[in-house]
Amino acid sequence: MQSTSHAFKDNARQAVGDPRIRKAMGLMKPGFQDRRARALSRLPEFERLREEGKAIKDHVLANLDVYLERFESKVVEAGGQVHWCRNAAEAREAILGICRSIGARTVTKGKSMVAEEIAINDYLEEQGLTPIETDLGEYIIQLRNEPPSHIIAPAVHLSKEDVEQSFREIHTWMDPARVLAEPRALVNEAREVLRRKFQEADVGITGANFLIAETGSTVIVTNEGNGDLTQTLPKVHIVLASLEKVVPTLEDASTILRLLARSATGQEFSAYTTFSTGPRRPGDLDGPEQFHVVLVDNGRTAMLGTEFQEMLRCIRCGACMNHCPVYAAVGGHAYGWVYPGPMGSVLTPSLIGVQEAGHLPNASTFCGRCESVCPMKIPLPKMMRHWREREYESKLQPAAYRYGLGIWAWFARRPALYHLGTRLAAGLLGRLGRGRGRIASLPLAGGWTGGRDMPAPQGKTFQQLWAERARGREAA
Amino acid sequence: MTSARDQILAGIRRSLRRDAPAPSDAQACAERIERHPRNLIPARAQLPHPEQVELFVSMLGEVAATVQRLPGLEAVPDAVADYLASQNLPAELRMAPDPDLEGIPWERRPTLTITTGRAEDRDPTSLTGAAAGVAETGTLVMTSGAEHPTTLNLMPDTHIVVLRADRIVGTYEDAWDVLRARGPVPRTVNFITGPSRTGDIEQTIQLGAHGPRRLHVLLVEQAGA
Ligand code: SF4
Fold first, then answer.
1. How far is A359 from chain B (nearest CA, A)?
2. pTM for the full model?
3. Were both Cys, which of A180, A192, A256, B118 would link to B149 (CB 3.0–4.6 Å)?
């Protein structure tokens, strides 16, 4: 996917004024946040499961080579093949090679963020093949020629009227009198069209939420069942996965699965969690004849052993963006590449370079909600700070910004002065934002507040409040 | 020229600042796989079996699946025929070629048309067994094989599942133990929790996005009784 991450500020400014984005984002709280909170309240072990999920991934990352080699040998044992690809170009070629080897024309696709990363659809189209997205949200945005705006709800920015309009435009065979006003009718229309596509396809490409070293299985999690039809009906199943998805055992996958759906959609479990191991077996009446895993690095090994290693624990649940005030204000497209929200702000510079995506780590209020909801306990704000430092070092920032951050750093290293300074500043900000609770611009800091509203401090710093509370407790 | 595979593995080792995994680490990984120890298991489903069955039934209800409890397999034909009639569905089934299902006394409802095999596009209703039911989340475990084509779980609008109550287990880990005891993991293991659904249009949940709109479980208390 072509990145526009460098234009984050302009993208964001446009998005903030867009009433459609306002409306769609307004659904995020009841849709994602409240459901997640309910699901968590029903699983008292959730916090401990987070610790275990984190430990599993940390263990895997420390032994990544061991588990990948084991995974590969089990895939081969089951009759499948693993294609190791260093970068997007190699992954595209590997997929094209497999398609060409069977003379494929139509390729159905389950949702895969790595597929977006390597822009496989555009590539296959250029080569004369027809890729068809089968996740409803992905299908809709493919019709509209748009990128996804959310990693698990790619069309979350669209209204049902937008979808109706796209169907009327592109499904030209449809009776114009047909009523498509309700989501139900739209879902039915897509189901019919895609059912034909599933059966025409020569190759089905899915992503993977996990790769299991124990068995050589790949795992997908969906609610629609589209990934299952994608991998069951065509002759060839290609799994496109980045290499950090590997986990040791079925038990380890099960532990992380308990975190995934609850964090993502607030479901106890997604409707379809499917473990695929090799091609169909002798005697099977359905299933693919070939099974290929295209295993992609594309920047992951370079993150290992750096301050960004922890990002490789990410299970792509989307909780961080569902709870991010910046994402809620600007929507997913403003981030300009595949991965939006806090996880995108950390991952995108790692994958496409700080030159291109250097603004993204600034897309944060450092409120810390992303880290607090992340099931894998990824310290997202800390890593955004790392990127800011790197960006600062690389002198990418305009001079005024560099100057400001330099002053901040100087104060921050001198706690007594810092406290005095923040107390003064908090008092000032409190007065500026009075009555509105939000501050749209700060004197001397236009470069920073231009793209974001800052919550107005209540006129006291955290340290002051803490000290007062502590005094209160002592008095009681 | 070294292969992409070798370069990737070398890159990982460089990043991990070691030339090769320490033998003790490699050993620990191999043992972890060999022993596949369980991690934390939530208390929710660690119950006596009858309570696991109750939990399974109530979790199925939460995900918009329906359940009917039957005393024995001989009650299945009536239950199937009545269910299809109640939903205004044709009295037609595509059944998994599973000896347990074929042994059901279908002659009791001669109006049911039953064919076996994989699902074809316009099959309205499938009937399959299940390897296990997981109480924790009301999840059905379906394994592919000659006796259970995967397409039956996915293509028809309505999926009826005959599940013996003694196949209900507490957790996913219990289900893995059941599957491991049967041999190598089959090509496809579907963990199915309710009918197909999507929230992709304005976050309103719609059932039957691509897979079944209806998932109906016939829970049989005593096999062959
Ligand atoms: S960073 Fe955490 S919260 Fe965000 S998508 Fe990844 S796992 Fe989920």
1. 26
2. 0.87
3. B118
B156 domain residue, yes or no = yes
| Cross-chain residue pair B145–A156, CB shorter than 8 Å | no
Residues 99-158 of B with CB under 8 A from A: 117-119, 121, 137-139, 144-146, 149-151, 153-155
Cα(B148)–Cα(A345) distance, integer angstroms: 45
Interface size, chain A vs chain B, as Cβ–Cβ contacts under 8 Å: 255
How close does chain A come to B17, measured CA to CA in Å?
Answer: 8
Q: Domain range spanning residue B52?
A: 47-220
Question: B23 lies in a domain?
Answer: no
Select from A187, A262, A307 the residue whose CB has the most chain B CBs within 10 Å, as the one to mutate to test that interface: A187
What is the tens place of the pLDDT at every residue in A224-241?
Answer: 999 999 999 999 999 999
CA separation for the pair B143, B141 (Å, rounded): 7
Cα gap A205→A218, rounded to integer Å: 12
> For position A450, what pLDDT does the model report?
40
Does a structural domain hold residue B29?
no
ipTM, two decimals? 0.97
* Lookup: tokens for A89: 């170009």
> Using a CB-CB distance cutoff of 8 angstroms, which residues of chain B are in contact with residue A221?
none
CATH number of the domain residue B84 falls in = 3.40.50.10420
CB contacts under 8 A, B 178-197 vs A, are 184-197
Give nearest CA residue, ligand 1 atom 6: A314
For A256, half-sphere exposure in the C-beta direction (CA atoms, 13 angstrom radius) is: 30
- DSSP H stretches of helix in A358-439: 369-373, 380-393, 399-412, 415-433
Residue A260 Cα to chain centre, angstroms: 13
Please state, in angstroms and rounded to a whole number, the distance separating the CA atoms of residues B138 and B143: 16
d(CA A54, CA A343): 16
How far is Cα A203 from Cα A109, in angstroms, rounded to an integer? Answer: 9
Which pLDDT value is given to residue A356? 80
Fold of A43-298: Rossmann fold (3.40.50)
Report yes or no on B187 lying in a domain.
yes
Domain regions of chain A by residue span: 43-298, 399-475
> Residue-wise over A201-229: b if at least 16 C-beta within 10 A, else e?
bbbbbbbbbbbbbbbbbbbbbbbbbbbbb
